[in-house]
Design a protein that fits this description.
The chain is of the alpha/beta class. The protein has 10 helices and 9 strands. GO terms for molecular function: FMN binding; oxidoreductase activity.
Length: 308
């Protein structure tokens, strides 16, 4: 796929690499072969003037029966599994890791971050949202923030804090990862992360519930993330339910430093250009999300000049 020529710092691309191999055909960043395979992709993005961060995630208990080899059991913050039928799946029952295992998981993130930098990525985003392992620990209470913060510290020490961001969704309920006081959780994490001086904090709006976005009035600026935004001293990124106009409005009101776009960017490889001239957007096709087809779904959306 061609990467459009967009000025430095105006386009932000995110790769998503799984440390736990939850989904089939997801890439990894564990081996020498994987590091080398990433390099031409990163080079192509850099040649077009873009910054390229790699998202690192571990799914924890969000894994289906029979997927792990040799009958292995997934780990989570507790032995409580995801209810059968959630997302139409039958989920493998997890186990709580031992204290001796936790440093190994933290180290997996550290090594993956080091490999990402070797592959040429500009930094990494730690996926602490959407019901995956880090968020499973974050919710609900029980001093679980320690796990996330240990990962942040290890990765920041390995590659430098200016190359590290984290994505959080304290209000989300994906995979039954729910917190009884998301306001307090979000604020605690925003303050705690300041200790490590990481590059950015990326937070999902509470109006996003799985694939559903609860939209408010067109002239409304969200407010739930404002305490986190004020507490966190570096770049704050808001995500979830934004279009061009709402994104500009949030920035103009100093609600966030940056707005993240996911589905719109996937369907519009030249989204920045389209926003610049207020051009119409391609509509995304959710049925092709996360499929392994090398042609359909990720690289077949037309650029603006091709659509005319």
């Amino acid at each position: 796929m061609e990467v459009q020529n967009i000025p430095l710092l105006t386009q932000y691309k995110m790769g998503e690499f799984d440390l736990s191999h939850r989904y089939r055909d997801t890439p990894g960043i564990r081996t020498r072969e994987q590091v080398e395979a990433c390099k031409p992709i990163v080079d192509a993005v850099h040649e077009k003037g873009s910054i390229f961060f790699l998202q690192l995630w571990h799914v924890g208990r969000a894994i289906t029966n029979g997927f792990l080899p040799n009958g292995q059991t997934p780990i989570s913050s507790t032995a409580r599994g995801i209810s059968p039928g959630v997302d139409g799946q039958e989920w493998a029952p997890p186990r709580r890791p031992t204290k001796d295992e936790i440093p190994g998981v933290v180290n997996d993130f550290r090594i993956a971050a080091r490999n990402a930098i070797e592959a040429g990525f500009d930094g990494v985003e730690l996926h602490g949202a959407n019901g995956y392992l880090i968020e499973q620990f974050l919710k609900d209470q029980e001093n679980r923030c320690r796990f996330a913060l240990e990962i942040v510290e290890a990765v920041a020490n390995e590659i430098g804090s200016n190359r590290v961001g984290i994505r959080l969704s304290p209000y989300a309920k994906l995979y039954e990862a729910i917190d009884s006081d998301p306001d307090a959780l979000g604020l605690y994490m925003a303050n705690a992360l300041n200790k490590f001086d990481i590059r950015y904090l990326h937070v999902i709006e509470p109006r996003v519930y799985g694939t559903v976005v609860l939209q408010g009035p067109e002239d409304e600026v969200p407010h739930k993330l404002l305490p986190m935004r004020k507490a966190f001293k570096n770049t704050f990124i808001a995500a979830g339910g934004y279009d061009r106009r709402k994104g500009n409005l949030a920035i103009s009101k100093n609600y966030a430093d940056l707005i993240a776009y996911g589905r719109s960017f996937l369907a519009n490889p030249d989204l920045v250009r389209r926003f610049e001239i207020d051009a119409p957007l391609n509509k995304y096709n959710r049925s092709t999300f996360y499929i392994p087809d090398p042609v359909v779904g990720y690289t077949d959306y037309p650029f603006l000049e091709e659509a005319n």
